[in-house]
Amino acid sequence: MNKIEILQKMIDESQNIVFFGGAGVSTASDIKDFRSKDGIYSKKSKYPAEYMLHHQMFVLHPEEFYEFYKANLNCLNKEPNISHKYLSNLEKKGKLKAIITQNIDGLHTKAGSKNVYEIHGTIYKNYCTKCHKFYDAKYVFNASGIPTCECKGIIKPDVILYGEMLPDCFYKGIEAIEKADMLIVAGTSLTVEPASSLINYFHGKNLVIINRDTTSYDNKANLVINDDLKKVFSSLK
After folding, report:
1. Is residue 35 pLDDT above 80, yes or no?
2. 39 falls in which pLDDT band (50, 70, 90)?
3. Phi and psi of 54, rounded to 5°?
4. Domain encompassing residue 180
5. Which H or E run includes 133?
6. Rounded CA separation 10/32 (Å)
7. Cβ contacts of 146 within 8 Å, gap of 6 or more
8. How many domains does the chain have?
9. How far separated are the first and last CA of the chain, in Å rounded?
């Protein structure tokens, strides 16, 4: 039995699956990841790459923050790929109970998944830092320079920047993992804390890690598949 067949058997035998994914889930939708050699953080910028997405950067240098944000995180025209679609179908079958994603692109929701915990927020929600009025993503990405509210306040994307607290859905994700009999982790290097520590809350039967490269959590998994996600999910039924 090869690894895909073993994965399929695990899915077939599980009734409470949780999926935890990172940037690698969306690369097949032509969205760049962060830490690969061609990722967003490989681009030269005035400040260290991770600082470009730090809360302090947004507060102190909003113009440069938005220049970086608009150039690298606009995925309004991107569409779900086979991984998003497979997971949406698995949820419809009643097997997949929750998706926990580090991605802010909204593609799981676009694919039809309902129970999605976006632990790093989403580009689709934006609000005025002064009066809290809501603005959609098109308004933000189409704005010239710093997007501002009619009250003159600066609009902030509802994405979790470095230095900010994680949203309540992070803790709902923990609850979902604690109840799961199978956890599929895919498309994440598992290097960003506290998101990577979510694995430690899993006490179910099968932990599966699917990633192009090895991770520091591979020794905890029942099954590790180092392959392209598109290839893996297109092989499942």
Report:
1. no
2. confident
3. -100, 150
4. 1-31+77-120+165-237
5. none
6. 30
7. 62, 63, 66, 154
8. 3
9. 16
Q: Please name which of 16, 32, 2, 23 lies closest in space to residue 202, comparing C-alpha atoms.
A: 16
User: Distance between CA 51 and CA 4 in Å, rounded?
Assistant: 39
Which residues fall within 8 angstroms of residue 14, CB to CB, at 6 or more apart?
95, 181, 182, 205, 206
120 noted as active-site residue = yes
Residues 83 and 197 in one domain: yes
Alpha carbons 112 and 46: distance in angstroms, whole number: 39
Reported pTM: 0.94
Alpha carbon 210 to its chain centroid, in Å, reads 15
Q: Answer yes or no: do 220 and 107 share one domain.
A: yes
> What is the phi/psi pair of residue 28, to 5°?
-70, -10
Q: What are the CA-CA distances from residue 139 to residues 109, 125, 142 (Å)?
A: 20, 11, 5
| Tens-place pLDDT, residues 43-83 | 677 788 789 999 999 999 999 999 999 999 999 999 999 99
Residue from 131, 187, 197, 122 nearest 160 by CA: 122
Q: Are 125 and 181 in contact (CB under 8 A)?
A: no
Catalytic one among 54, 84, 108, 120? 120
Given a contact cutoff of 8 angstroms between Cβ atoms, the answer to whether 203 and 178 are in contact is: yes
